């Protein structure tokens, strides 16, 4: 069989070359393409959702190279994205975590395995889970080594600095009785001599890359897509989203090649044929727990997880400086979509009371001024309405939703919803949030705070806006 389609390797940077090197050895007749996302490295500290989005961009690039198999030569990306990528690609996809776990289980004598990896991989518990799936009695000690990737990428991996960082980082493992240590990040094998030195001869190091390539080899045979022409001289092509010169230096050194010329690619300008769609998580740009519950009730019934700004504590607050609901929702959605590089849905909403000339409007959250909260806002509302008779206390709750894609602010999707009602003088009910206890809906004979979340969502301004959104967002999400 002669199949000259290349095998694709993707990584956050040069680390994946440790897997690639093994592939050169085990698969000497295969064409291969490598892509390192050096412009956005390291992946380790990033939220998993973002790693998934970046991985999809690399996957799309690789699919455009007509690859026959994809190797996710990055542990962080494997932990975050292997399952979703596998589920949607028409070709075999191999990650590094399962092979690495298998190798460690084979080697360990005392059933105590250590794992060093990035923060993302450790946080996902990826190795511990995979190892325990195979053997629940093994104990696994995981340690994040966030400083290793930068040391490798800056080509300092043989320097005294590297020695110091490795010694310091691994100190906690020296007090354990692990007999096996998984290098759970493809960058780490470049530090192997130092790691070996620090851990001593009683600890066997596992390089998941070796086992990963064995799996690739098995799958090539299984699917009958290997290139078995022994006379064939294959080519290797290298791409980076960062600077090719740094890539070339490390690449030549590590792979032992005289010639290596990586090409630069602008990853977020590439077409996306294999989108992350169907989207399974939405980030709602809100700090408001009441809003979050209402969004969750609607989207989770469709099988879509809702995350909020509370899941991303590292993000700064944005000031709602707009003078309309739409402006404010756009500010929130666009800013966070840019920061997270994920699709983000923002809600700006408020109460407009006719007798108050439409106030508090866009100032609903901050109506009572500095240090505002629901109670203070409601007290101010009562004070402002003063003697206004019950019949004249008509009001409208309004919501504008803006859905934003990263880096495409001109494509924002905007929908709205309104709910008319009356402001009562005495609060009723304990559910909902904000002005709900004072907002009476005549048709239901209840205030919003007397309704369950489902009852409120069925009629509310936000519920209506979400219904309008539900009809159009999937199509919007899939267009480029
Ligand atoms: O900006 P985020 O973080 O989303 O949260 P927020 O509470 O500041 O939200 P807005 O800027 O949109 O302000 C909306 C305010 O209007 C009020 N509000 C909006 N929707 C409401 C609802 O369904 N029930 C009661 N009050 C509501 C409530 O006081 C909110 O704080
Ligand atoms: Mg706000």
Automatic annotation (TrEMBL):
NCBIfam families: glut_race, PRK00865.1-3, PRK14822.1, RdgB/HAM1 family non-canonical purine NTP pyrophosphatase
Cofactor note: Binds 1 Mg(2+) ion per subunit.
Protein family membership: Belongs to the HAM1 NTPase family. Belongs to the aspartate/glutamate racemases family.
One Pfam family hit: Ham1p_like
Gene Ontology MF terms in the entry: dITP diphosphatase activity; glutamate racemase activity; identical protein binding; ITP diphosphatase activity; metal ion binding; nucleotide binding; ribonucleoside triphosphate phosphatase activity; XTP diphosphatase activity
Binding site for substrate: 11-12, 43-44, 75-76, 186-187, 286-291, 349, 433-436, 456, 461-462
Lineage: Bacteria, Bacillati, Bacillota, Bacilli, Lactobacillales
Keyword Zinc-finger: no
Domain of life (superkingdom): Bacteria
Ligand binding (Mg(2+)): 348
Keyword Repeat: no
Protein name (Swiss-Prot/TrEMBL): Multifunctional fusion protein
SUPFAM superfamilies in alphabetical order: Aspartate/glutamate racemase, ITPase-like
Task of the protein: Provides the (R)-glutamate required for cell wall biosynthesis.
Species in which this protein is naturally found: Lacticaseibacillus brantae DSM 23927
Cofactors demanded by this protein: Mg(2+)
């Amino acid at each position: 069989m002669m199949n000259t389609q290349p095998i694709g390797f993707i990584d956050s940077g040069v680390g994946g070359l440790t897997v690639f090197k093994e592939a050169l050895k085990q698969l000497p007749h295969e064409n291969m393409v490598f892509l390192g996302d050096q412009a956005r490295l390291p992946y380790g500290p990033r939220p998993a959702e973002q790693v998934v989005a970046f991985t999809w961009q690399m996957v799309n690039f690789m699919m455009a190279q007509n690859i026959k198999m994809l190797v996710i030569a990055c542990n962080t990306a494997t932990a975050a994205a292997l399952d979703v990528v596998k589920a949607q690609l028409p070709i075999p996809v191999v990650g590094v975590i399962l092979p690495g776990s298998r190798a460690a289980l084979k080697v360990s004598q005392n059933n105590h395995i250590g794992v060093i990896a990035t923060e993302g991989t450790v946080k996902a518990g990826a190795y511990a889970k995979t190892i325990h799936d195979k053997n629940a009695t093994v104990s696994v000690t995981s340690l994040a080594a966030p400083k290793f990737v930068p040391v490798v990428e800056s080509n300092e991996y043989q320097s005294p600095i590297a020695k110091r960082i490795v010694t310091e980082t691994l100190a906690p493992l020296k007090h354990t009785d692990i007999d096996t240590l998984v290098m759970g990040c493809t960058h780490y094998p470049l530090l192997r001599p130092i790691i070996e030195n620090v851990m001593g001869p009683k600890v066997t190091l596992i390089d998941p890359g070796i086992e990963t390539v064995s799996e690739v080899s098995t799958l090539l045979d299984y699917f009958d897509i290997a290139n078995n022409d022994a006379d064939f001289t294959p080519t290797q092509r290298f791409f980076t989203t960062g600077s090719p010169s740094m890539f070339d230096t490390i690449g030549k050194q590590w792979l032992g090649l005289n010639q290596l010329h990586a090409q630069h690619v602008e990853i977020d300008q590439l077409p996306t044929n294999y989108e992350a769609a169907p989207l399974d998580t939405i980030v709602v740009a809100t700090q408001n727990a009441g809003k979050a519950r209402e969004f969750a009730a609607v989207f989770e019934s469709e099988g879509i997880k809702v995350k909020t700004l509370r899941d991303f504590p590292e993000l700064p607050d944005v000031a709602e400086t707009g003078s309309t609901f739409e402006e404010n929702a756009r500010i929130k959605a666009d800013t966070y979509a840019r920061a997270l590089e994920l699709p983000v849905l923002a809600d700006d909403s408020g109460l407009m009371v006719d007798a108050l000339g439409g106030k508090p409007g866009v100032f609903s959250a901050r109506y009572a001024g500095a240090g505002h909260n629901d109670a203070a806002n409601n007290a101010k509302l009562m004070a402002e309405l003063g003697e206004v008779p019950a019949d004249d206390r008509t009001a409208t709750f309004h919501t504008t939703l803006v859905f934003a894609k990263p880096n495409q602010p001109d494509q924002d999707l905007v929908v709205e919803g309104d709910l008319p009602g009356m402001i009562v003088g005495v609060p009723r009910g304990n559910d909902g949030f904000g002005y709900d206890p004072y907002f009476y809906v005549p048709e239901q004979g209840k205030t919003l705070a007397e309704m369950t979340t489902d009852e409120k969502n069925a009629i509310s301004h936000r519920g209506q806006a979400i219904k309008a959104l539900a009809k159009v967002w999937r199509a919007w999400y899939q267009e480029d």
